[in-house]
Fold this protein.
Amino acid sequence: YYQAKKQNKKVKGLLILAPGDDYSIEKHEKGKDFTKAVQYAKKLVKLGKGDQILPPHISKYSAKRFLSFADSKNTESKLLNYSGELKLFSKVKEPMLAVFGSEDEYLVGTASNSLAKLREKTNSNFLETIIVPKANHGFKGKEKKLAKLIFDFIKFIDV
């Protein structure tokens, strides 16, 4: 988000690790109750109770935090929404490394489809996309593999 907006020349590259689509994740998890949950959170915000923690069946976050990724009008919900246009992502020109674990428990769809969407929408001068086999969202047990990928990317962009 920052780089898409600021185009800071000091930024040499971006690491995008487990770039989940929070909007779609939430919509998938809530199913038919998604719209009701968003409406309830909006009502709390309208009443001046946006900092109130939502009931556990809706979210562990406050109403405002929940809406930041669950309301399709908000920037965070659009940032990595793989079914959307990825307009902000497309504004980033710097080299990027995007890495998913093949077993990412928060994925809606597949890692390969999500990374293909990033490749389709990028305007970066370099985008490397990698799936780490048998890695979950936090890359537990695959930290050394992930560290090597990151160090190799840093060496590549540090020319």
About this structure: The chain has a mean pLDDT of 95. The two ends are 25 Å apart (CA to CA).
